[in-house]
Design brief:
alpha/beta, five-stranded mixed beta sheet, Nucleotidyltransferase, domain 5, binds adenosine-5'-diphosphate
């Protein structure tokens, strides 16, 4: 079999047709509802105790800290109340010994110290004023009048959240291991160390990064309808959306303001359909899962996110290389390489290493449309460790990478579409009189990614042109905030998501046009600040 035919055959295994999309949406909605009704389901549907999203008029100075891996970030965010903000930030690496400290106090006192350094460096005025007032405040009223910074704490480890600023650590991940912290409230531990340093700071909110994305987008979003969903397509994938309180029927431990009738729910959709009822499962997906540290878990994430797409591609290519009759990365095509030299793969090549291939090669493959695929061939040398690949080799990589990326985006569309349908936001439509087609183009342009990738915007607007019909009124826009390298950098990720949305019953072309998807920048900082603000209002 020729290399071209074989690469087309492998690519076809990743095809995810409209009918599959529709079936997955039905299952996704089922699993969402199951998660709202009871605990220990596939999708956790965690209530966040955040009961409203911002509308861009919020004001004030807030602090945010982020402990999620190798670094600790401290920032202050000035919300200007007009959908804009200013952000000051510092970042420090967590010393290795503190990641495995004997006691949690060692780590948390280090974190509090960083907050103190940040305040002294960037907010000296506020800090000094606080110290003076504290010294003169002798009555309880005097103390209450002291100006405290409200702080949002983004903590990206598994926690059991029992209130907007309450949550106990379930277990450490990502190289942290401090036994006595497990089961303890991380906000209490941070507050205790902050108080020991007598800092004017209150830990007001415990923040999940997906919820931060939703809040940040809702604040900065051009429309004032409030963002429905915040979604991350980066190393992992997850989403948080605004759900009706009445639909969350499982027990909730914490106190919250019921007046809005809504609550933000963290779906933990990475584990959608772990039983593989509807998800596609190629032999390459099966190999990835079997050899992973958590087989059978995060099955949706394993088909969508940046951590896994490079590995799926690597496995598919290795399976092809194993077949002697398939001339991939073999010398047969070497006359079509620039060097006319032998195509070779070293034994130590990244191609043969588990997790050896970064997902960014998918974006490079997708973007290279030159005749000789020179950029992609260079990337194959660099990141797969194959020397002097031929044009045919690069065409095969491109074909398969495209199929993997397109499937990921269509699956991402399933999550977005299911949430739009679950929340019933498409229910009402304001009818607008028809506009001349030139105005439609500019409308469509303004409806897409506001701040990122102007080139993509134009492409999207052009792609959307054949869709006729009345333009969308601002009142009918369903706003969605996204973050993560995959959605930001993979060419056409949004186009393919939209293709899937159009295929869904209950959405179709008319519904898809009402969905505005925009990048949420600095989600963890601004989002955490906004949740601290919401929490302070609840007091
Ligand atoms: P995180 O999710 O950890 O906050 P990112 O959103 O930057 O960070 O996502 C990092 C992931 O995205 C990595 O798995 C990386 O392989 C992948 N990635 C980075 N750049 C690209 C790209 N240009 N195209 C596709 N995937 C990418």
């Amino acid at each position: 079999m020729s290399l071209l035919a074989e690469s087309k055959r492998v690519a076809a295994e990743f095809e995810y047709v409209d009918d599959d999309v529709r079936k997955a949406v039905v299952e996704f909605i089922d699993e969402m509802n199951e998660g709202l009704e009871k605990n220990a389901t596939l999708m956790s549907q965690i209530p966040t105790y955040v009961t409203a999203v911002p509308n861009g008029t919020e004001k004030g100075l807030y602090l945010a800290v982020d402990l999620g891996g190798t670094n600790f970030r401290v920032c202050s965010i000035q919300l200007h109340g007009d959908t804009t903000f200013s952000l000051t930030q510092s970042k420090v690496a967590i010393p290795k010994e503190l990641m495995e400290a004997k006691t949690a106090t060692e780590l948390f006192s280090f974190l509090a110290k960083q907050i103190e350094i940040f305040l002294k460096t960037h907010h000296e005025d506020h800090f000094e004023k606080h110290i003076k007032r504290r010294m003169t405040a002798s009555t309880p009223e005097g103390y209450r009048n002291l100006e405290y910074f409200k702080l949002g704490f983004t903590f990206s480890f598994p926690v059991h959240q029992v209130g907007i600023n309450r949550g106990t650590l379930i277990r450490w991940t990502k190289g942290f291991n401090i036994a006595d912290a497990v089961g303890q409230d991380v906000c209490v531990m941070l507050q205790r160390e902050i108080d020991l340093l007598k800092l004017p700071v209150t830990v007001a909110a415990l923040v999940n990064d997906t919820v931060g994305t939703l809040m940040a987008r809702s604040y900065t979003s051009p429309g004032k309808t409030g963002t429905l969903l915040g979604a991350i397509f980066g190393t992992g994938t997850n989403g948080a959306y605004v759900e009706k309180l009445s639909k969350i029927t499982k027990p909730m431990d914490g106190h919250f303001d019921e007046s809005t009738g809504d609550m933000v729910v963290n779906t933990e959709w990475g584990s959608f359909d772990n039983n593989l009822k509807v998800l596609p499962n190629t032999p390459y997906d099966a190999i990835l899962d079997k050899d992973s540290v958590n087989p059978g878990i995060q099955m949706f994430e394993k088909r969508i996110s940046g951590m896994f797409l490079g590995e799926i591609l690597r496995i598919a290519l290795v399976e092809m290389v194993k077949k002697p009759e398939i001339p991939l990365f073999s010398d047969v095509n070497s006359s079509s390489n620039d060097y006319h030299s032998t195509t070779t793969i070293a034994e130590s090549a990244a191609l043969y290493k588990q997790w050896g291939v970064d997902s960014s090669i998918l974006s490079i493959a997708e973007a290279d449309n030159s005749v000789g695929l020179r950029v992609l061939r260079q990337e194959i040398e660099k990141s797969l460790g194959v020397s002097a690949p031929s044009i045919e080799d690069a065409q095969a990589v491109k074909e398969i990478a495209h199929a993997i990326g397109k499937r990921a985006a269509r699956l991402a569309g399933v999550a977005i579409g299911a949430i739009v349908l679950q929340t019933g936001r498409l229910g009402s439509l304001t009818v607008q009189p028809p506009k001349p087609s030139s105005e439609i183009v500019s409308d469509i342009k303004s409806l897409h990614l506001q701040d990122a990738a102007a080139a993509t915007v134009n492409k999207l607007a052009d792609a959307a042109l054949p869709l006729t019909g009345a333009p969308v009124s601002e009142d009918d826009v369903i706003d969605i905030g996204v973050d993560g390298s995959l959605v930001e950098f993979y060419p056409g990720f949004e186009d393919y998501m939209r293709e899937a949305l159009r295929a869904m019953e209950g959405i179709g072309a008319a519904g898809e046009r009402r969905i505005r998807i925009g990048i949420a920048k600095d989600g963890s900082g601004v989002g955490a600040a906004l949740i601290a603000l919401v929490a302070a209002r609840m007091e």
